[in-house]
Write a structure and sequence with these properties.
This protein is α/β, with parallel strands linked by helices. The chain has 14 helices and 19 strands. The structure holds inosinic acid.
Length: about 450
């Protein structure tokens, strides 16, 4: 008999954009709370409901379901303006997004705040000569986490204290303006105008702010179900990802613990979302990247353009060593495979089953960039199913070759496939019986 799990971490298996938004939205009806634990408005979750498109960057997708509460955890870096504009957009779309004790959305009092000088420094540094260009989303994410680790950041609780906010902005602007002018020749930011703008924003944010660690632990104690929603993807993790081409937070499953204040023994299961192929935006290694017409086909059929920046995504074949690595560092129990239908027109599907580095066959993921740069993927070629899988919701109704593709993926990846997505809408989703039972 399946052991039911009250909590689950759900995250992207590779470099983000795996289609997690839709999956979190579909699964959220089984959970009372969805909590974000890392990143900021660099994430972009596209959800399509009844043909209407919502792009959420900061607010957990769960809030789109009546009765499901959203939490922005302490591990998140919060841009107050981005947060307020997202709340406004959702309210204009007819969602209540109530704040306060009995509200629907909660922001951790311990989350860090992104301020305009974080963006200023990031934009200048990304383009400075001699720097490794990461291809960031230019949202100030890295510099905000730098301040957090440097112990000079501003937390949400401090944003609400006007005297503290004023002093913090004055001191920080003095320091950041001096650095930006000296290193990059950037024009200074005005601390007075910044204080006034952020003090006004703080008033609007205040009703959402609470001790979310306490809230989440209480909810779990009561036996309610909580989903921890990752942002970005496991291989963008600051420790385990393809450093330095990563984001600045712990996007792996472990981040759910430190990023929300819930103990590791309270994590019920880990669900990783992977496309049937792989994509990446921004710079950095990508062993199975496709450089021929197949990439154009996948990009066009899969609408592979960044949800936040609109940049075309790099496309590649499924990389099993990388997926196994991702499953290992996350403790992934279940896989959700998205965009199966995007591969409907592929006559042949190469799947990477190993690497050759310096002429030697290996399955180990190199820690250094030099290793990545010399990888030659070893491919097994599978026959494409070459017919439509769009909207199919039962495994047995998939074409045989599509079933074989999924079986191969499951066998080789070390995790079980729990769901398969065959189109962008909520209804175009297949849920395996065993997975259904675990999350019932
Ligand atoms: P940052 O998070 O803006 O610092 O960007 C660092 C790297 O992570 C860049 O390669 C970005 O393109 C990538 N990145 C950040 N957030 C996401 C996301 O939500 N999806 C995909 N890539 C992301």
């Amino acid at each position: 008999m399946a052991i039911q799990r009250k909590t689950a971490v759900i995250l992207g298996a590779q470099w983000g954009d795996e289609g997690k938004g839709k999956i979190v939205d579909v699964l959220s009806e089984r959970f009372s709370v969805v909590a974000r634990y890392a990143g900021g408005h660099n994430a972009g979750h596209t959800v399509i409901i009844g043909g209407k498109k919502f792009v959420l960057q900061l607010i957990p997708c769960g809030v789109l379901r009546p009765g499901c509460r959203g939490v922005i955890g302490n591990g998140v870096v919060l841009d107050p303006m981005a947060f307020l504009s997202e709340v406004k957009k959702l309210r204009e779309a007819g969602l209540a997004i109530a704040s306060g004790r009995d509200g629907q959305l909660f922001v951790s009092n311990r989350a860090q705040v992104i301020l305009p000088y974080h963006r200023m420094i990031e934009l200048a540094a990304e383009n400075a000569p001699g720097r490794t260009k990461i291809g960031t989303t230019s949202r100030g994410i890295g510099p905000a986490y730098e301040d957090k680790m440097h112990r000079s950041g501003l937390r949400v609780i401090d944003l609400l204290n006007t005297a503290l906010l004023r002093t913090h902005i004055e001191n920080a602007c003095h320091e950041k303006n001096t650095i930006a002018a000296a290193l990059f020749g950037t024009a200074p930011l005005d601390p007075k105008a910044m204080y006034e703008e952020y003090a006004r924003a703080a008033e609007q944010i205040a009703p959402f702010v609470t001790d979310t660690a306490e809230l989440l632990n209480e909810v779990i104690e009561k036996g309610e179900k909580v989903m921890f929603e990752g942002a970005q993807g496991a291989l963008l993790d600051i420790d385990h990802g393809t450093y330095p081409y990563v984001t600045s937070s712990s996007s792996t499953a472990g981040g759910a613990v430190t990023g929300t204040g819930v103990g590791p023994n309270r994590i019920g299961t880990v669900i990783a979302v992977t496309k049937a192929y792989v994509t990446r935006v921004g710079e950095g290694p990508f062993p199975t990247e496709i450089h021929d017409d197949s990439a154009t086909l996948l990009r066009a059929r899969g609408q592979e353009y960044g949800a936040v920046t609109g940049r075309p995504r790099r496309c590649g074949w499924l990389d099993l060593p990388l997926l196994r690595y991702s499953n290992m560092i996350n403790g992934t129990e279940w896989l959700v495979v998205t965009k199966m239908d995007v591969m409907d027109e592929c006559a042949e599907i190469p799947v990477c089953t190993g690497y050759k580095i310096g002429g030697r066959l290996t399955e180990t993921i190199p820690a250094e960039m030099r290793g990545f740069e010399t990888i030659q993927p070893v491919y097994t070629k599978l026959k494409g199913w070459a017919c439509s899988t769009e909207g199919i919701t039962e495994f047995e109704r998939l074409p045989k070759l599509a079933q074989e593709y999924l079986n191969f993926m499951e066998r080789e990846s070390g995790a079980r496939i729990g769901m398969v997505s065959t189109g962008p809408d909520r209804e175009q989703t297949m849920t395996m019986a065993a997975f259904d039972a675990v999350l019932a």
